[in-house]
Amino acid sequence: MTSALHRLPAVTLDDLQADAALQTRVDRKYVVPLPTLGGLLDELDPAARVLDIGGRRTFTYRSVYFDTPALTSYLGAARRRRQRFKVRTRTYVDDDLCWVEVKTRGPRGTTVKDRLPHEPAASATLTDPAWSFATTVLGDERADRLDGPLRPTLVTTYDRITLHVPADDGGPASRTTVDTGLVWTDPADGRERALPGLAVVETKTGSTPSSTDRLLWRHGLRPVRLSKYGTGMAVLHPDLPATPWRRVLDRHVEPAAR
């Protein structure tokens, strides 16, 4: 995978954000065995470029997810409620940058992400500005369903590669992220579970599938329902309802880990 990654031309963060920010998008997720990943990178669209910042092409992410005492966010996703949402902080570990992010559902199955700069040292806390921002983005209908203060319920860490495919005659610009080394941690007691030997590949496009989606389909890989928050909570707390992620849990997470 490393050799394929370094053969790709680079794209800067500014160019990526200008051409394919995609804060409102359709997300498709795939679970890909690591031995398969290098070959897939070799077959990417020739126009594909990889995010490069200061010579680095792999970046460590740490996300802290927040939920209510009754797990309103988790259960909204598990039960496929229309007004479901996620609130998290995301830390770009290599650059010591942090954001508070709120993800909601838009029209026709799109994901809408709003974010605000956050203090990295306070990544496990929703400060007053972060709380005000989150409730404003959630709006009255979602905020009224909160049964109590949001508290940290899950931490995820992983390494990410970001690929950019510029727009062409076949469709708009798209992004693909490749996450490896995923670890879920319960912030209450420090229990950990990992997803060894597998990458989570996510395409972020408009309504039209990207060339990366079509490449994955040709290799027999199909989108799966996988939420880092939902799946991680289900792994660490097997008593929770987990119907949307059952296929991923049964196929890709070791039974002994659950």
Protein model, in words:
It is a single chain. This protein is an alpha+beta fold and 258 residues long. The protein has a single domain, classed as VTC, catalytic tunnel domain (mRNA Triphosphatase Cet1, Chain A), CATH 3.20.100. It is 27% helix and 33% strand. The protein contains eight helices and eleven strands. The chain has an eight-stranded antiparallel barrel, surrounded by five helices. The longest helix has 16 residues. The protein is globular and about 50 Å long. The two termini are 29 Å apart.
Question: Which regions contain 5 or more consecutive residues with pLDDT less than 50?
Answer: none
Distance between the termini: 29 Å
Helix content: 25-40%
Mean pLDDT across the residues is: 88
Please count the beta strands (DSSP E, at least 2 residues each). Answer: 11
Categorize the overall geometry: globular
> What's the CATH class, please?
Alpha Beta
Multimeric organization: single chain
Biggest sheet, spatial arrangement of strands: 2-7-6-5-4-8-9-11
The whole-angstrom Rg is 18 Å
The CATH fourth-level homologous superfamily: VTC, catalytic tunnel domain
Decide which structural class fits the backbone. Answer: alpha+beta
Order of helices and strands: HEHEHEEHEEEHEEEEHHH
Q: Give me the number of helical elements.
A: 8
| CATH topology description | mRNA Triphosphatase Cet1, Chain A
State the CATH architecture.
Answer: Alpha-Beta Barrel
